[in-house]
Amino acid sequence: MAKPFVKWAGGKGKLLPTLQSNLPTDFYIQQEITYIEPFVGGGAMLFYILENHPNIRRTIINDINLGLISCYRKIQNNHQELIHELRQLHNAFYELETIEERRNLYYRLREEYNLIPVNARNTIRTAALFVFFNRTCFNGLYRENYNGNFNVPYGRYVRPNICNEQVILDAHNALQRVEILHGNYTNVLENIDWNEYNFFYLDPPYRPLLGAKNFNQYTMNAFNDPEQENLRQFCDVIHENGGYFMLSNSDSEIEEGVSYFEKLYNGFNVQHIRAPRRINAYAQGTQMTTEILVKNFD
Ligand SMILES: C[S@@+](CC[C@H](N)C(=O)[O-])C[C@H]1O[C@@H](n2cnc3c(N)ncnc32)[C@H](O)[C@@H]1O
Questions:
Q1: Does position 255 have pLDDT exceeding 90, yes or no?
Q2: Interior/surface letters 206-236, b for 16+ CB within 10 angstroms, e for the rest
Q3: Which domains does the chain have, with CATH numbers?
Q4: pLDDT > 70 in the chain, percent
Q5: CA dist 272 to 21, 281, 294, 296, Å?
Q6: Position 218 pLDDT exceeds 60
Q7: CB of 63 sitting under 6 A from ligand 1
Q8: Is the CB of residue 41 below 6 angstroms from any atom belonging to ligand 1?
């Protein structure tokens, strides 16, 4: 079974049963579905859909993070070279015995990665480094500063699995049927045929909860309130063209007791759903919280 090849902030693995039960009722019987995920991240929903819905005829994914999208493309087309490069990184890491030496290797590789211009992070080497960082950095986070430098510190994993060949092979097989785009989410519109049955799953960076500093900056481009409002217009375009969409976000408030997304998505079906959330970056375990799920169908 194919599954995400990176751990990703906001990953939807634990929410899959809820998302699945909220798909349109005819999702199982339609024969010619186009599935579109414009903010794919680690792709928990993507891999679930690819494995469980053979009736999907076309799949389009997109993300603004070129390092991530290059991993998808290398896994799709050059997975053996990627595995080879990752094995070398794995060996280089495990040849070192002390935490200090491994940490130094991590920071040397991070420097190598950051010296490569953001728009050139599309090689086998950068894809292997991307996966390596995901396995060895703090909490598997990917975060860039305003200059596009990856700035997550070394993590605490004792025996990270740097080269998980089976996961890459399974993802390689699943991705053969996928069109992989890089850029702003609106890019996907150029590739849509509105005569088809189009289903969009939208999982943008979450709006911070009132008073909280949530992690919503994956790359040098922040996703702030004007962006959330543009995304509402994007949903209108889908709706007006007869497509279906389902959108996840935080249960964020404008002020105490007033839901930001109920107001923004007025006219659509807005549900408050239960979801597990990490307590914080330092503590172990999760607690339950509510999130919102917006749909343009019942
Ligand atoms: C909440 S995460 C998606 C998580 C994903 N559903 C998963 O299961 O791992 C949001 C994603 O949106 C991407 N992103 C941020 N701004 C974007 C934009 N303007 N256009 C496209 N993707 C964007 C980020 O790089 C990140 O991967």
A1: no
A2: bbeeeeeeeebbbbeeebeeebbeebbebbe
A3: 13-64+183-295 (3.40.50.150), 71-162 (1.10.1020.10)
A4: 93
A5: 14, 24, 9, 15
A6: no
A7: yes
A8: yes
Tens of pLDDT, residue by residue over 96-116, are 999 999 999 999 999 999 999
Distance of alpha carbon 62 from alpha carbon 183, whole angstroms: 7
Tell me which DSSP letter residue 265 carries: T
Ranges of H-type helices in the chain: 16-21, 44-52, 66-77, 79-95, 99-114, 124-136, 165-175, 225-240, 260-264
Sequence length of the chain is 298
Name the residue of 48, 62, 64 whose CB sits within 8 Å of the most ligand 1 atoms, as the mutation to test its pocket.
Answer: 64
Number of neighbours of residue 242 by Cβ within 10 angstroms: 11
**CB of 218 sitting under 6 A from ligand 1:** yes
Long-range contacts of 95-100 (CB under 8 A, 24+ apart): none
Atom number, ligand 1, closest to the C-alpha of residue 45: 8
Q: Is the pTM of this model over 0.90?
A: yes
Burial of 163 (0-12, 13-18, 19+ CB in 10 A): buried
Q: What residue's CA is closest to ligand 1, atom 19?
A: 184
| Separation of CA 41 and ligand 1 centre (Å) | 5
Does the beta carbon of 75 lie inside 6 Å of ligand 1?
no
